[in-house]
Amino acid sequence: MNKTLISTGSVANNKKARFNYTILETFEAGIMLTGGEVKSLRAGRATISESYATVDNGELFLVNAHILEDNATKGGFVQHVAGRPRKLLLKRKELNRLMGEVAKKGKTLVPLEIYFNDRGIAKVRIGLAQGQNMADKRETIKERDWNRDKQRILAHYNNGKK
């Protein structure tokens, strides 16, 4: 059986985060993983759609990120728990700044993407976000639909002109 492994690029995206929140700023954080978790990430077996980041005792953790067990290591000696909290690694200055921002009302940290950088190291892009109300969501949907219709009209116009 030939598996395709991801050496660089995106592993998991959180599409709902950009719809439910306004992303104010993004940060790149390292993530502490076990060997089996890295292997599962390379196989693309991760979801972060319902996950969030939280501060606990001055450290940042990724909660509810599901990195499934790899089939090859399923019967092995060391297995990991799919939804365990994973420590995120940031510089102290960035972490202190984020803790101050999260303490403000209405701001939260959401993971946007898990990916492998150019050196093959797993990273998490987290966003400092503020929740959107229903009116903002409707505006986003209206803008997205208009852009789709605009592209369709332009394609039809350009095809008829040739």
Overview of the molecule:
The structure is a single chain. By secondary structure, this protein is α+β, with helices and mostly antiparallel strands. It has two domains: 11-131, Small protein B (Small Protein B, Chain: A, Beta Barrel); 133-162. The protein is 33% helix and 33% strand. It contains four helices and nine strands. The chain has helices spanning 15-20, 35-42, 92-103, 134-161; strands spanning 9-13, 21-31, 46-47, 52-56, 59-63, 66-67, 86-89, 107-116, 122-131. The chain has a seven-stranded antiparallel beta sheet with strand order 1-8-9-2-7-5-4. Strands 3-6 form a two-stranded antiparallel ribbon. The termini are far apart. The model has no long low-confidence stretch (mean pLDDT 82).
Report the β-strand fraction as a percent range: 25-35%
The chain-level structural class is alpha+beta
Mean pLDDT across the residues is 82
- Count the E strands: 9
Whole-number count of domains: 2
Q: What's the CATH architecture of the largest domain? A: Beta Barrel
User: How far is it from the N-terminal to the C-terminal residue, by CA?
Assistant: 48 Å
Taken in chain order, the helices and strands follow as EHEHEEEEEHEEH
The CATH topology label of the largest domain is Small Protein B, Chain: A
CATH superfamily of the largest domain: Small protein B
Side-by-side strand order of the widest sheet: 1-8-9-2-7-5-4
CATH class division of the largest domain: Mainly Beta
- The coarse overall form would be globular
The helix fraction, in percent, is 25-40%
Rounded to the nearest angstrom, the radius of gyration is 19 Å
- Strand count, sense and closure of the main sheet? 7 strands, antiparallel
Low-confidence segments, ≥5 residues, pLDDT <50?
A: none
Number of helices: 4
